[in-house]
Amino acid sequence: MSPKRSSIFAVAAVLVTAFGLSACDTNTGSPTTTTTPINGVVRIIPVGTTPAGVAITPDGTKAYVTNNISNNVSVINTSTGTVSATIPVGTNPYGVAITPDSTYVEDESISKAYVANRTSNNVSVINTATNAVITTIAVGTNPVGVAITPDGTKAYITNNSSNNVSVINTATNAVITTIAVGTTPARVAITPDGTKAYVANYDSDSVSVIDTATNTVSATIPVGTNPIVVAITPDGTKAYITNRASDSVSVIDTATNAVITTIAVGTTPYAVAITPDGTKAYVTKYASDSVSVIDTATGAVSATIPVGTNPIGVAITTDGTKAYVANKASDNVSVIRIA
Questions:
Q1: For the segment 113-167, what is each residue's pLDDT rounded down to a tens digit?
Q2: Are 296 and 274 in contact (CB under 8 A)?
Q3: Mean of the per-residue pLDDT values for the chain?
Q4: Which of 9-23, 27-41, 103-117, 195-209 has the highest mean pLDDT?
Q5: Which has the closest alpha carbon to 169: 158, 157, 181?
Q6: What's the rounded Cα separation, in Å, for the pair 292 and 287?
Q7: Measured between alpha carbons, how far is 336 from 269 in angstroms, rounded to an integer?
Q8: How far is it, in rounded angstroms, from Cα 157 to Cα 148?
Q9: What HEC string does the chain produce?
Q10: Cα first-last separation, the chain
């Protein structure tokens, strides 16, 4: 090797060692080094066409990504960073959520993924052990959001065009009630104690609070313009709502159901996910191709992370080490090291 070339490699090695730099293999999803800085992208994983929603299994071994245009779900092996299965579902799948623990289906204990198929007006239920669709449930018009109660007994589905929420009994996979909410409900999140569901009403600029015991709306909270996604802190004390047209995040005190602060995050915030320790909120920003990190103690944006084009969905692993971001126009998922 020439002295000049040797010097170049020596400088590269110093940069990697000193700053924890890491390149990504965009074909395999595998990092090319073992060290990546906090809030650095460690993997870029190709999936289907127009990925939208992301959910991670309770054991952290798999990520389920809905592909809105290819009408399927990519299953990512989180250890290898590769797609291990592709599951056909309904038309224009959007939101996805996974039961928190195994439930029984025909006397077999399994975990289930619920996928909202926007144009099919139904929900596909996937057995995560076999990656097969075990049933399809008719719901309202244009379902987009899914949230499952902490005990795994009910799934709440927001119906974007019928302005209501379908409640599914996960044991029978039947709709047990339908709840009227605001205009154009987008996403939904449930408090850790399972008592309340918070629904972002995109065209009402509000959040509906559902009492899950009675399945009635107990409060309506004004927020920013075009609220779209909700996330609840692990201690259940706060709800974070992305306001797409206000370029902000509203923070609601769940005890009083009042907005206690509004955080400017940048252009077109879309989804939000909170770390298991509750210290940070990760917000995807659709138009700026990045993710903002909010320090939940101070309410300040502590970092901005470049990702793919038009990031939408985000999910954080149960061990709090990584965030998975679905990049709609890049047809891939960015994996961020967060701890």
A1: 999 999 999 999 999 999 999 999 999 999 999 999 999 999 999 999 999 999 9
A2: yes
A3: 90
A4: 195-209
A5: 157
A6: 12
A7: 18
A8: 9
A9: CCHHHHHHHHHHHHHHHHHCCCCECCCCCCECCCCCCCCEEEEEEECCCCEEEEEECCCCCEEEEEECCCCEEEEEECCCCEEEEEEECCCCEEEEEECCCCEEECCEEECEEEEEECCCCEEEEEECCCCEEEEEEECCCCEEEEEECCCCCEEEEEECCCCEEEEEECCCCEEEEEEECCCCEEEEEECCCCCEEEEEECCCCEEEEEECCCCEEEEEEECCCCEEEEEECCCCCEEEEEECCCCEEEEEECCCCEEEEEEECCCCEEEEEECCCCCEEEEEECCCCEEEEEECCCCEEEEEEECCCCEEEEEECCCCCEEEEEECCCCEEEEEECC
A10: 38
Distance CA 156, CA 135 (A): 17
Please give the pLDDT value at position 285: 98
Q: Give the pLDDT score at 317.
A: 97
Structure-token match 């798999």, residue found: 62
Nearest to 68 by CA among 5, 119, 139: 119
Label residue 274 exposed, middle or buried (CB < 10 Å: 0-12, 13-18, 19+).
buried
| pTM check: above 0.85 | yes
Measuring CA to CA, which residue among 126, 131, 129, 130 is closest to residue 146?
A: 126
Q: For position 36, what pLDDT does the model report?
A: 87
For the chain, percent of residues with pLDDT exceeding 90: 86
pLDDT digits (tens, 9 = 90+) for 21-43: 344 444 444 443 357 899 999 99
What the chain holds in terms of domains, given with CATH numbers, is 1-37 (no CATH), 38-337 (2.130.10.10)
**Count of residues making up the chain:** 339
**C-beta separation of 66 from 51 below 8 A:** yes
Distance separating alpha carbons of residues 339 and 322, to the nearest angstrom: 7
φ and ψ of 115, to 5 deg: -120, 125
The residue written with tokens 């779900």 in the block is 73
